[in-house]
Input
Amino acid sequence: MKKAFRARAIDPILQNVYNVSPVIGPASAVFEIEEAGKVRDEKWTDDVQPPECLGRFAVFDSKCARVYVSESNELTFVPYGFDIINNLGTLNR
Output
């Protein structure tokens, strides 16, 4: 999901260790999207430009948080509680 939704910190996709034979080809997924009361499928394939609508979702985990904190990033969406970091710079010493 992190690759499909364009997260800032992306881990490599690992194959299923329980599969006896390795899967050939890129990882892929089909996301069921409901928008304005209509349901549709959006196909995602690794290393192919993802559908534009998947960019509206956000994945936020500890690795993504480190990227936001350690790099110069302009935040357009701030998860609940994350705004404390922006406010730290305004504290008087």
